[in-house]
């Protein structure tokens, strides 16, 4: 997960907040060109049931209270009928780009007329977004129904763990089991899972992946993963392990994005030790060409089996083009018989459908507002590059709100050259960095007059819009960033509460 969806101190209150973010079925509208939206919540009873289930999940240990284990999740999956082996799996780990890459792989495989279940984290507005079937978040009704069906089995595992003096299933462990149960119930042909944190002991690693995907590895979650790129890469390489006895999954194949030299060396070493073939970007496949296009870009990718030319990708930034190259090779590896390329038209169709909410997403114009969940220096660097390349802003207001446990100084270092003004604020998360502390960090990089403090995100957006409208600029832009929570709150404030 890029950031942790930490349960609130009051699970019931947090669950009730969920209700406000669920679209009223009478007012929800779907953009003609957008990804299908989730099945609407049809009545108050279903809304209340979703809040009940969410409160039960939030009452468990949160995602920052990590248990370094696989056996607890495995027990639950096994007593539910080995739901983690019900469909072949593609697992994605890395530091940045996991969710976008997962969505691309999902879309590419769906275009080949296979039913895909996708498990990603964190969510923007509703926990149901984390579990997708057929490219759309699972309905609230299904989420509640499957949870109630598996709840007695979760309680059995909880009791076993407590009898052993161990912690009960955590929020993320329970949610992982729920996802596999939803996919087995659907049923789906393929499961695409995004690792929550690390890889070796992450709950998603209970499934033996047929294809193991590594996006760009950087520094994040050092308290759990290690202080060096090498340590983090080694932990993430744990997705190559086989976890299921007499696993029905074939021997895995690994696909890696371009990595820093140190990370690539570790991945190569770990893959060789396990005798897993690894296809690395720039070594075995590559992005050949890309050019800016309206609402996205055109790319050409040298895959392992063919060159896929002039593909329209409706996302901005060179990082998304590289993510697409990785996704295409992952799909080639999973779908294609040996040496058989994918159909060019089907690949084009799959990529053209991709969306990635909260990632360099243009929410409105007049003035333009772009939201991006960059929360670490690497992601902020990518955002700065994307702004320079894909948006013609001649005046930029950056609205920044971050969590206290993130590298605010590193993020501001990467973004300060892109900003004419910072409007710093706080999101609603309990771990939010106080606005005054964030302002102090920003003043280390820009003039004091270029930093404005707003008490909350609504005030920050209003101030940013006033600034953009008042300057003598042809193309002013507002960029909201610093956390996925900041993005989620901004989307709601700007009337974009749906996931897709």
UniProtKB/TrEMBL annotation:
Low complexity bias (residue ranges): 8-24
EC number: 6.3.2.17
Pfam family, one: Mur_ligase_C
Keyword annotations of the record: ATP-binding, Ligase, Magnesium, Metal-binding, Nucleotide-binding
Catalysis: reaction(s): (6S)-5,6,7,8-tetrahydrofolyl-(gamma-L-Glu)(n) + L-glutamate + ATP = (6S)-5,6,7,8-tetrahydrofolyl-(gamma-L-Glu)(n+1) + ADP + phosphate + H(+)
Disordered: region residues: 1-38
Domain Mur ligase C-terminal: residue ranges: 358-472
Domain Mur ligase central positions: 92-331
The keyword Disulfide bond is assigned to this record: no
Residues passing through the membrane, by range: none
PANTHER family tied to this protein: DIHYDROFOLATE SYNTHETASE-RELATED (PTHR11136:SF0), FOLYLPOLYGLUTAMATE SYNTHASE-RELATED (PTHR11136)
Family of this protein: Belongs to the folylpolyglutamate synthase family.
Protein name: tetrahydrofolate synthase
Biological source species: Brevibacterium permense
């Amino acid at each position: 997960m890029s950031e942790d969806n930490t349960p609130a101190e009051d699970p019931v209150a947090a669950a009730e907040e969920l209700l406000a973010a669920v679209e009223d079925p009478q007012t929800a509208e779907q953009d003609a060109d957008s990804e299908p939206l989730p099945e609407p919540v049809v009545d108050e009873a279903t809304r209340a049931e979703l809040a009940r289930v969410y409160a039960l999940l939030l009452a468990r240990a949160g995602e920052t209270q990590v248990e370094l284990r696989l056996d607890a999740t495995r027990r639950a999956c096994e007593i539910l009928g080995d739901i983690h082996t019900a469909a072949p799996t593609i697992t994605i780990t890395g530091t940045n780009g996991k969710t976008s890459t997962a969505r691309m792989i999902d879309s590419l495989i769906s275009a080949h007329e296979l039913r895909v279940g996708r498990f990603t984290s964190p969510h923007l507005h509703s926990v149901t977004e984390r579990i997708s079937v057929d490219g759309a978040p699972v309905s609230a009704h299904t989420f509640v129904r499957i949870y109630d069906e598996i709840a007695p089995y979760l309680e059995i595992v909880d009791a076993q763990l407590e009898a052993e003096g161990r912690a009960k299933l955590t929020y993320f462990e329970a949610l992982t089991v729920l996802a596999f149960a939803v996919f087995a119930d659907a049923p789906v042909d393929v499961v695409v899972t995004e690792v929550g944190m690390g890889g070796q002991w992450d709950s998603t690693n209970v499934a033996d992946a047929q294809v193991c995907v590594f996006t760009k590895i950087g520094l994040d979650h050092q308290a759990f993963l290690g202080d060096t790129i090498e340590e983090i890469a080694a932990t993430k390489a744990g997705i190559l392990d086989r976890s299921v006895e007499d696993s029905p999954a074939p021997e895995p194949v690994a696909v890696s994005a371009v990595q820093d030299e140190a990370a690539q060396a570790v991945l190569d070493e770990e893959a060789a030790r396990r005798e897993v073939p690894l296809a690395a970007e720039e070594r075995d496949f590559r992005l050949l060409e890309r050019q800016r296009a309206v609402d996205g870009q055109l790319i050409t990718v040298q895959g392992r089996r063919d060159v896929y030319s002039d593909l329209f990708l409706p996302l901005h930034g060179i990082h998304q083009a590289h993510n697409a190259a990785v996704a295409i090779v992952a799909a080639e590896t999973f779908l294609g018989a040996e040496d058989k390329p994918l159909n060019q038209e089907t690949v084009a169709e799959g990529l053209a459908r991709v969306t990635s909410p909260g990632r360099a997403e243009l929410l409105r114009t007049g003035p333009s507002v772009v939201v991006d969940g960059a929360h670490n220096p690497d992601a902020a660097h990518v955002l700065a590059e994307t702004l320079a390349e894909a948006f013609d802003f001649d005046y930029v207001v950056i609205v920044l709100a971050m969590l206290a446990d993130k590298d605010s100084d590193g993020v501001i270092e990467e973004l300060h050259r892109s900003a004419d003004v910072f409007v710093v604020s706080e999101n609603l998360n309990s771990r939010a960095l106080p606005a005054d502390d964030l302002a102090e960090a920003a003043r280390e990089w820009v003039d004091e007059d270029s930093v404005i403090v707003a008490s909350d995100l609504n005030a920050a957006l209003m101030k940013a819009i006033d600034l953009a409208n008042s300057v003598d600029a042809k193309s002013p832009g507002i960029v909201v960033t610093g956390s996925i929570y900041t993005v989620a709150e901004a989307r709601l404030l700007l009337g974009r509460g749906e996931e897709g």
